[in-house]
Amino acid sequence: MEASVIEVERILSYGFIDRKLLEEALTHSSSTGVSYERLEFVGDHIIGLAISKHLFLAYPQLDPGQLSDLLDVNVSKEKLARVAIHRGLHRFIRQSFSSELRDQIELFEKAVTLEKYPVGIHGGSVGAPKVLSDIVESIAAAAYFDLGFDLEKFWEKFRVILEPIVTPGDLEQQPHPVKELYKICQKMGKLLKIKSERKETDSIAYVFVDGKFIASASSDKKDLAKLEAAKIALDTLAPLPPPTSTRPSITDMQLRAKQKLNELCQNKKWPKPEYSKAKVSGPPHEKRFVCSVKITIEEEEGVFVLTNGCEKSKLKDAENSAASMMLITLLGV
């Protein structure tokens, strides 16, 4: 165990004052001794806090939603698992893994070595075993404790391990495939639906646009199947022309969406949709609006659904956009 601790200290370029912290951080529950689970719990939050602070200071122009998207990809299980592989931390876990888990780690490692950044920031074709992100979080907590709970010192020491930090430019270069697919279909005036089903050990995702089958993909994890199917669909839809004059315009689609949402609430005997301004920006003569719409499903239980639309120059258009997003949420269209 001491050899593993020394090697991890070399990777971190940091010598622990209390090496027992690092020993615990490297001990999986399948082995003997105190496992890293409690440290992992803390490490999850410490990494999130440190990266949140970094993003807040580094990108003052970003709004909360953009900061949230950046944080999500930087602290995701997929991102941290790749950190474990790239830094070789997984080789020093004290464990008695099952052969199945060993095979999963080996398969993921092979897939990651073939990736080129920023490919993989949303996940790849092979799902990341949770133990890989766990080990990064537990080591992070051990370092944080050993540094006297000093967040500044922790970030100074641990940032290099987490690099490359995903930037706004990376997200612009590789937006989330599922979100991008919904965005493109909405701009083209097309209706998108993604269906999933489980067949034995695999989950299969199917993409339909205007009722027409576009793409499918399978994976052992539902989210990854959906992700891969969206990537294929994006490549397929890329050459498609925008809607012709015979198709409804985006504005017409959104106007119908607001009307359709009202009809849905009437049919379900729900209260009328409640629209409100979620965000107002710009000078008085060029204001931009983001509206939200709230649907109360069970009044007595206080159950409701709330979604935001896209930013628009007119309040009416912003409400229509919110209605479109609500229909997607409720109906999957």
UniProtKB/TrEMBL annotation:
Keyword RNA-binding in record: yes
All residue ranges annotated as the DRBM domain in the record: 256-332
InterPro entries: dsRBD_dom, RNase_III_dom, RNase_III_sf
Pfam families xrefs: dsrm (PF00035), Ribonuclease_3 (PF00636)
GO biological process, any: siRNA processing
Gene3D superfamilies with a match to the protein in the record: 3.30.160.20, Ribonuclease III domain (1.10.1520.10)
Domain RNase III: 5-148
Source taxon at top rank: Eukaryota
A GO term, aspect molecular function: RNA binding
GO cellular component, one term: nucleus
Keyword RNA-binding: yes
Keywords: Hydrolase, RNA-binding
Protein name in the entry: RNase III domain-containing protein
Species of the source: Vigna angularis var. angularis
Protein's gene: Vigan.02G129500
